[in-house]
Design brief:
By secondary structure, the chain is mostly helical. The protein folds into two domains: 11-68, 434 Repressor (Amino-terminal Domain), CATH 1.10.260.40; 73-160, 434 Repressor (Amino-terminal Domain) (Orthogonal Bundle), CATH 1.10.260.40. Helices cover 55% and strands 2% of the residues. It has nine helices and two strands. The chain has a two-stranded parallel ribbon with strand order 1-2. The radius of gyration is 17 Å and the shape is elongated.
Length: 164
Amino acid sequence: MARGRLRGFRPERLRLARQAAGLTQEQLAIRTDISRASIGSWEAGRTAPDPRNAVRLAQALHLSIQALTGITVADAQPADFRLWRGLTRQMVAELSGVAEPVLGQIERFAVRPGPDTASRLARLFGIERRTYLAAWERGRTRLSARHVGTDFPHRDLPTTAPDE
């Protein structure tokens, strides 16, 4: 997934939601101030919307951003919670007080969020801290499994991000 794009985006969910709303691509484009070409590209599965455009689509179609994906909370990774809220890392940094570079390290599984950091992020995303930490552990485990037989990770466990 490209940086800042909606992981798990399902083009057919966007198309079906648009059709259920009785809208053409052009009508949805007008309602969202997004180009018809972008909507067509997303529905064709060539690209996925960024957080800002995902918010616009969800609002226009009266659904959650999460509904545009096939990802459940039980399968979510830390970045999913941010994207489901339509937030960029910069926005999260400003709202939570967690430095943007630290957010990047957490979302890349380079460092584990400390208790205070995890609590602040969980509050912002409207979830429990344990849910956020479980998502981080799940994502880290999946990442490690993809790199079996390689030198990843360079250490057994990542360091914990300092609580700011």
